[in-house]
Amino acid sequence: METGEKPPYTRACLIEAGNTLRRRDGPGALAVATLSRLDEIRASPSSSLPSCSTISDAIVCESPRKLPEWMIGRGCVAIDSIRHPAEVEALRKGPCPFLLLHVTAPAKLRYAWLLSRNRAGDVKTEEEFVAAEELELRHPDKDGQQLLDVFAEADLQLENTAASREAFFEYLDVFFRSAVQSRVQQQPDPCS
């Protein structure tokens, strides 16, 4: 890669970028960067948010299409890929109520999804997949990904065994509608 050239958006590259930022700026750095943009994210219609944007060397990926349409304009924000317990701590201290939902799926299903998306830089064998997941669950570097500790902080856990991504997001829409919508409608927006 030439000087000044952007690195490829491979999973390994994004993981290393996150680990580097946590070492440099503290283990909650990615959540702090996201919180600093909360007003901008909340004010933007979901279709105008980029899928990935740069925040002071940090790559923060939002997935606004994952937010059910009924949540748009109600002050709700979905943040995915929380990878370190210090990020959970920072988000819990943020200006808005925070709910950590741990979505899990069977390993064989996750591996099949990884293969089907056929993304550059993804692992190719089941052995590589298992090794990569082990490293994400508890990285030896304290500022690396610590998913087991994040899972332990979850307020709720859901298992995704849906046949497709679309089917799972339909399920999430129903889940959030029943579990959250009445609360959102009954309470004034605490972040206004």
Task: Please tell me about this protein's structure.
The protein has 192 residues and is mainly α. Helices cover 46% and strands 8% of the residues. The chain contains 8 helices and 4 strands, in the order αααββαβαααβα. The chain has helices at 11-25, 29-36, 38-43, 85-92, 107-117, 126-137, 147-152, 165-186, and strands at 52-55, 58-61, 101-104, 156-159. A two-stranded antiparallel sheet has the order 1-2. Strands 3-4 form a two-stranded parallel sheet. α2 (29-36) packs parallel to α4 (85-92). The longest helix is centred in the C-terminal third of the chain and has 22 residues, at 165-186. The radius of gyration is 17 Å and the shape is globular. The model is unreliable at 47-65 (pLDDT under 50).
SSE layout and pairing:
Elements: H1 11-25, H2 29-36, H3 38-43, E1 52-55, E2 58-61, H4 85-92, E3 101-104, H5 107-117, H6 126-137, H7 147-152, E4 156-159, H8 165-186
Parallel strand pairs: 3-4
Antiparallel strand pairs: 1-2
Based on the model shown, name its key terms:
8 helices; 4 strands; mainly alpha; 46% helix; 192 residues
